[in-house]
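BUG-167 | component: ligand-complex export | severity: low

The export step for MU-OXO-diiron jobs runs without errors, but we want the raw record kept on the ticket for reference. Input record follows.
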Amino acid sequence: MITNRMEDAFNKQINEELYSAYLYQSLSAFAANIGLEGFANWFQIQVQEEISHSQKFYHYISERGGKIKLLQINEPPSEFGTPLQLFEETLKHEQHITKCINDLMNLAIEEKDHASQIFLQWYVTEQVEEENNVKTILDKLKLIGNEGHGLFMIDKELSVRVFTPPV
Ligand code: FEO
């Protein structure tokens, strides 16, 4: 059984992950609208990843005898600016999610919930990867600027990303 504090915090994290999916869906739509189909694909895969992150929390709460409570999902922005700004927004968001995961880990330690600490370890590692992936793309975008051949090449690169379900 998980404590009420853990249950509330995990339910809130389901909402954070689903909001992430919503945000990336909006970024995907925006990218497609300005003709960046590769960017749109990258964000679409991100949507699937975020839904799978929320599902992991969902199943974990149930497994520990907790109660699922689905909270309202906020409306994401729909205008994002330049290709560079799309990934700046993404990095900012992932840094926020990293903070959420760290807060959850701190709570699990405070509650002496060893099982949750082990469960959360996967997310700690995942966030390192998430931030690093985004930083790599952001660095390239900073180098090439917002137009021209370089942007076309990055768009092509982002078009090949596929979804791999987490284990
Ligand atoms: Fe579920 Fe991208 O963090």
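Assignee comment: Attached the raw record above. The pocket of MU-OXO-diiron is lined by residues 17, 20, 50, 53, 94, 97, 130 (CB under 6 Å).
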